[in-house]
Automatic annotation (TrEMBL):
This is Cohesin domain-containing protein. Gene3D superfamilies: 2.60.40.680, Immunoglobulins. SUPFAM superfamilies: Carbohydrate-binding domain. InterPro entries: CBM2/CBM3_carb-bd_dom_sf, Ig-like_fold. GO terms for molecular function: carbohydrate binding.
Length: 275
């Protein structure tokens, strides 16, 4: 079945003519541990939360002879409101990457506070731009914590975000150097939402859905700005590494060692400028 509420209780009973020796359960194929049975074989686990989308719950019971039986139920969590990371187009080292933030709702959201988290090892220089629907409203973005953006807005008056799937904002990052091609998680957490009367919307019916940023290796050694050629911008990045303005990671040497002396130095910059 389907529900719009994230919370649930797992309850039921198991029985066998030879007596049940143990019971356990899984969620989405992941073991959740043993179930505590009462004298009648009943069990109840409270305070559980569904994952976004389909949740397959399997209860297994074993009798005294080692025989096993199971029962399965599938519950779909379909929240009233979902804030999610949209489609992120792959980008290579040095390029700019846009991460869209989208809201799916019935048109009942007028204000919101949320947090976006990213891995600063691979993404840097975050810049959030609100969508056209958000322009002219009160908003605030705090980027003072590395690896995190704390964002809030209020449309004010009787305004709400239009129903359906709507773009809230886009966050632009610069892709830092990477040791290998990888996917870097970008996560969302809704701290609160309210309607146009200022009333809080139920957190139990609101979902946050994370996304992935696919990061690609550079095609040209020394290309730090992702334009597939060597230029002054690339040399500037190497100089920042040499003077400590930009962190040097172990893989940065091989990615920029144009004079092939197994270290970063000003000679690499000279090779860039001669290209």
């Amino acid at each position: 079945g389907a529900t719009s509420d994230v919370g649930y209780t797992l309850s039921g009973s198991v029985s066998d003519n030879r007596g049940v020796s143990a019971a356990s359960w899984t969620l989405g194929g992941v073991d959740q541990g043993a179930l505590t049975l009462d004298s009648a074989g009943g069990f109840s686990v409270t305070g559980l939360k569904l994952g976004y989308g389909s949740n397959v719950i399997v209860v297994k019971a074993t009798d005294e002879g080692g025989n096993e039986g199971s029962g399965t139920v599938t519950v779909n969590w379909v929240p009233k409101r979902t804030l999610r990371i949209g489609t992120v187009i792959e980008r290579q080292e040095g390029q700019k990457m846009e991460v869209p933030i989208e809201l799916k709702s019935a048109g009942d959201v007028s204000s919101m506070t949320f947090v976006l988290k990213y891995d600063p090892k691979y993404l840097t220089e975050p810049n959030l731009v609100w969508s056209s629907e958000m322009l002219g409203v009160l908003n605030s973005v705090n980027t003072s914590t590395v690896g995190e953006l704390r964002c809030a807005f209020s449309l004010g008056g009787t305004k709400v975000v239009s129903s359906g799937e709507k773009l809230v904002s886009k966050v632009e990052f610069r892709v830092r150097s990477i040791p290998e091609e990888l996917n870097s998680e970008v996560s969302l957490e809704v701290l609160e939402m309210a309607d146009n009367q200022g009333n809080s919307l139920a957190a139990s019916r609101t979902a946050s859905v994370n996304g992935q940023a696919q990061l690609l290796k550079r095609r040209v050694i020394g290309d730090n700005n992702g334009n597939d050629r060597l230029d002054v911008g690339d040399g500037t990045v190497i100089l920042k590494m040499l003077t400590g303005l930009e962190e040097v990671r172990t893989w940065d040497v091989g990615s920029n060692d144009l004079n092939e002396n197994t270290k970063l130095d000003s000679g690499d910059v000279t090779r860039v400028l001669k290209s």
